[in-house]
Design goal:
Layout lengths: L43 H33 L3 H25 L6 H6 L1 H6 L1 H12 L6 H19 L14
Helix pairs in contact: 1-5, 2-5
């Protein structure tokens, strides 16, 4: 385990150390769930409930903070145009962040696109929290994508390691 980042020294799916575990690809851990999403064990249901409650609580607290910011704008008496502009900005950015986060649970995102959307996603953090909440009601966020990739990796591993019957050098040649 790397001391600096807290990540494993070997990437998920690598063969290092996999022979001791029976070989084959290893599932990639999910945030808050580790690899419990594979077999739905080790408190998976409790973790999912905790993630749902935590993300909803964070979204509620975030909305309260935004409410205080709105009241500050009202006290500053900046005018209705600025107030409407700020409300529209947070609403639009939250909707875009929700959609982007929701789509990210089903497909791998382009890293360059994610980097360019970082500011927008930071402004629309409430939408990301709500997407995380709604997804955790049905599954661990990102579980479907990880499960598909893990199944493909297992299938490819089985194809690579399947044994042929017989000795190919003793095969009769056609004349």
């Amino acid at each position: 385990m790397s001391d600096e980042t807290g990540t494993p020294d070997t990437p998920a799916g690598s063969s290092d150390g996999a022979a001791a575990q029976g070989g084959g690809p290893r599932p990639e851990p999910l945030r808050f769930f580790g690899t419990s999403w594979v077999e739905h064990d080790n408190g998976y249901a409790a973790r999912r409930a905790g993630v749902a409650a935590g993300s909803l609580a964070a979204a509620v607290v975030s909305c309260l903070v935004l409410r205080f910011a709105y009241e500050g704008i009202q006290i500053a008496d900046t005018g209705s145009f600025v107030t409407v502009l700020i409300i529209a900005m947070f609403a639009i950015c939250s909707a875009l962040a929700f959609r982007n986060t929701w789509e990210g649970f089903g497909t791998r995102q382009d890293p360059q696109r994610q980097a360019s959307l970082r500011g927008l996603l930071a402004i629309g953090f409430v939408g990301s929290l709500l997407a995380y909440f709604f997804r955790s009601l049905t599954e661990a966020p990102g579980e479907k994508l990880q499960r598909e990739e893990y199944a493909q990796a297992l299938e490819a591993y089985e194809r690579r390691t399947s044994r042929r019957t017989g000795n190919p050098s003793k095969k009769k040649r056609r004349k």
